[in-house]
Design brief:
Blueprint (H helix, E strand, L loop, with lengths): L1 H14 L9 H10 L4 H21 L4 H12 L6 E2 L2 E2 L9 H33 L3 H27 L3 H24 L28 H36 L5 H23 L15 H12 L1 H13 L2 H6 L7 H6 L1 E2 L7 H4 L8 H12 L2 H31 L4 H12 L1 H17 L3 H23 L42 E3 L4 E2 L9 E5 L2 E5 L10 E2 L5 E2 L1 E3 L9 H16 L2 H10 L6 H17 L1 H12 L1 E4 L10 E4 L1 H30 L10 E2 L5 H12 L1
Antiparallel strand pairs: 1-2, 3-13, 4-5, 4-10, 6-7, 7-10, 8-9, 11-12
Main location: membrane
InterPro entries: Kazal_dom, Kazal_dom_sf, MFS_trans_sf, OATP
Subcellular location: Cell membrane
């Protein structure tokens, strides 16, 4: 401990001159009074002159140890806020980490809004065009694959350069990628629409062809969305690797949790906002068939094309951060003072490998650094823990809207809005609260890992309650009910509707007066329909013989109505309470896992460590995650579109109970894996040398006192 205190003193002494590189307030005031147009040039000369002076000092005959310290000081050199060599005195009040964090959160939020819009748009496009499995995978995985290909290189070389400059490039790429997503919709869809009639029981039916976009729109959509995903994947690296490292290096150790929690919360809120914005736009793709006309088809096409305006707005918001980020210096004001009072050891790394070793900007040194990181089992286990943790949030975002829609009989728009505005923001709240808690308690690395395991255990308990909050399935003719004994389970056709020649490609949920659901009015044997107060009602249904009869205002007896039968299940508020609490406690583990990784590596390897963690998270988390939850959803499907367009289409009906068990089961397994890997890392951490196991905070003003005490004790 005493040796650590002595080693910090040279750095603290050398950190002080950096604060005088900007003119004082008094000098700036005089310049404003006498030479208002000259002050920018004067500040620029001072900045340039101080830089040349430091170069001359380092070029002289300096002791090797002092020269090495000065080189380290140069890497984290504070500078004034300005564009290039032009420093603006009035802008220096914004040269702090809080202003940087505001613009950073704006950029992160805008990119995550794009992610939410893209996910909804892609799902809508897949349903309308019945894409092949390979096409679906290409659209969904392009972002993760493109980011994995460049993350190690950007993390290594970007960490040695000007990180705010890299984030400026990321800001430009986020806006450009958003415009690429807008282009197919902006240029027009040209859907092939034909007139169709409602699928009721009648001898002659006008059936529409497959509703597909024209080949030009289809190819244009695929091309530009793949390009947009690739650009966004590259733009994400400076944000979630270099940006996180930059913020961590610019704040006090025990305050980093709050700052990083705000960043993660901004991303989750952005994704939820994207869902909320895009939810009304998916009303044209409801899995049902109504009576349509050419005018309705044109309205649907115009509704689909309204996606583009949202992408353009997000591009403008992202580009609004270009100038602010380009003005931030290599090191934000106050960074040197903060880091001078904190001495961090390269905890996990072998000192024999890193002692007196400077890694240059070459491919050989990149792989050498990569090898040092990947050979440390504790680092690998913590990264795998983050990957398993990401699967829970993927399940919430990918599968939750479908789950709510089918469990509680909501429309796709209502279910998506509920997930986007109520449930997914629980992750943002968990990230913020987790960061605040660990910052206020000033947890060590062992404390952070304990926190992850405890909150994950609480999440497991809440998941057990979620399993039991589901609704019973409604009797469905041909699936769970056999048409009163006249039909067979698994066959929608029965003697009462065999003369109707119904098609299972036209799903229009219908509820009979006997409280039994039917695939369509045709399968219920209904031959006549009316529209009463904007609601469809059906009459003369040959398959409906029981139940209470009601008459309309014209005296006709209603046999069925459009829509799903009331499940008489009122558990939605209870489900929201449990799943919201589950997501909050699950998100508690996000910030502690990031901070643990940042603390166990040396200062110069943090950016690359975050890059390697990013790759592991993608390979074992975000890439297989959507596929896993898609398979989970498909296994609970009991009726699927198998006729339309000559290929297997969307799932019409799910087994609610099986869906509940599968969703909770997969999340339960992911949390168990998180606890398992974190427990292994915790066990490895206990066997580290004691002097390398904790962050040692030091106050600069007490250095001389501590040094005297050490000298006295040695005498």
């Amino acid at each position: 401990m005493q040796e650590a205190l002595v080693e910090v003193e040279p750095r603290a002494a050398l950190a002080q001159p950096a604060e005088n590189t900007v003119p004082s307030e008094a000098e700036a005031g005089k310049a404003r009074g006498k030479y208002p147009r000259f002050r920018i040039f004067t500040a620029s000369l001072i900045k340039f002159g101080s830089f040349k002076k430091r170069e001359r000092d380092q070029a002289g005959s300096t002791a090797p140890s002092i020269k090495k310290v000065r080189e380290e000081q140069k890497e984290s050199l504070e500078g004034p806020c300005g564009l290039g060599c032009m420093a603006f005195p009035r802008c220096q009040r914004f040269n702090n980490i809080r202003c940087f964090l505001i613009f950073f959160c704006i950029l992160v939020t805008s990119q995550c809004i794009v992610f939410g819009l893209v996910d909804l748009s892609t799902d809508n496009f897949q349903k309308e065009n019945h894409l092949k499995t390979t096409e679906n995978l290409v659209l969904s995985l392009t972002y993760d694959i493109s980011s994995c290909l460049v993350v190690v290189f950007i993390a290594y070389y970007g960490g040695k350069g000007n990180i705010p400059g890299w984030i400026t490039v990321s800001s430009f790429l986020v806006g450009s990628g958003s415009l690429l997503f807008a282009f197919p919709y902006f240029s027009g869809g040209n859907y092939k629409m034909t007139v169709e009639t409602e699928d009721i029981c009648q001898e002659m039916k006008m059936v529409k062809a497959c509703k597909k976009a024209s080949l030009s729109f289809r190819s244009k959509y695929m091309t530009f969305f793949i390009l947009g995903q690739s650009v966004q994947g590259i733009a994400a690296i400076p944000l979630y690797v270099l940006g996180i490292t930059f913020i961590y290096n610019s704040v006090a150790t025990h305050s980093a949790g709050i700052y990083l929690g705000l960043v993660e919360a901004a991303g989750i809120l952005g994704y939820a906002l994207g869902y909320a914005i895009g939810a009304p736009l998916i009303k044209a793709s409801v899995n049902s068939t109504f009576e349509k006309s050419v005018e309705d088809s044109d309205d649907n096409e115009r509704w689909q094309q309204s996606w583009w305006i949202h992408f353009v707005i997000i591009a403008v918001i992202a580009w609004s951060t270009l100038i602010p980020f380009s003005c931030f210096p290599h090191g934000i004001r106050g960074t040197a003072r903060i880091k001078a009072g904190e001495h961090k050891q390269p905890h996990l790394l072998d000192r024999d490998q890193t002692k007196d070793q400077e890694f240059a900007a070459s491919i050989k040194d990149l792989f050498a650094t990569f090898g040092i990181l990947i050979k440390n089992p504790m680092f690998v286990y913590l990264s795998l823990s983050r990957a398993s943790e990401s699967l829970v949030m993927i399940g919430a975002s990918e599968f939750l809207p479908i789950y709510i829609e089918n469990q509680f009989i909501l429309t796709p728009s209502e279910a998506t809005t509920l997930a986007g505005l109520v449930l997914i923001p629980g992750g943002a709240l968990g990230q913020i609260l987790g960061g605040i808690i660990i910052s206020k308690l000033k947890m060590s690395c062992k404390g952070l890992m304990r926190f992850v395991m405890v909150t994950s255990a609480v999440t497991l308990v809440l998941l057990a309650f979620v399993i039991f909050v589901h609704c019973d399935s409604i009797p469905f003719a041909g699936i769970t009910e056999d048409y009163g004994g006249t039909g067979q389970l698994g066959n929608l056709t029965a003697p009462c509707n065999s003369h109707c020649k119904c098609s299972s490609s036209f799903y229009s949920a219908t509820c009979g007066r006997n409280d039994i659901g039917y695939f369509s009015p045709c399968f219920a044997g209904c031959t006549y329909s009316k529209t009463l107060k904007n609601h469809k009602t059906y009459y003369n249904c040959s398959c409906i013989k029981e139940g209470l009869t009601t008459s309309d205002n014209q005296g006709d007896f209603i046999d069925a109505r459009h829509g799903t039968c009331d499940s008489k299940c009122y558990k939605l508020p209870l489900f929201i309470a449990f799943i919201f609490s589950t997501i909050v406690f699950s998100a508690f583990a996000g910030i502690p896992s990031i901070l643990t990784i940042l603390r166990i590596v040396s200062d110069k390897q943090r950016s690359l460590a975050m890059g390697v963690t990013f790759v592991i998270l993608r390979i074992f988390g975000t890439i297989p995650g959507p596929v896993i939850f898609k398979i989970v959803g498909e296994t609970s499907c009991i009726l699927r579109d198998t006729e339309r367009c000559g290929s297997i289409g969307s799932c019409w009906i799910y087994n609610k109970t099986k869906m509940a068990y599968l969703l909770a089961g997969v999340c339960f397994i992911c949390k168990v894996v998180t606890i398992f890997f974190t427990a292994i890392a915790f066990g490895l951490y206990k066997y580290l040398p004691q002097e390398n196991s904790d962050v040692l905070p030091t106050v600069v003003k007490n250095l001389k006192v501590k040094k005297k005490e050490r000298t006295g004790s040695s005498l």
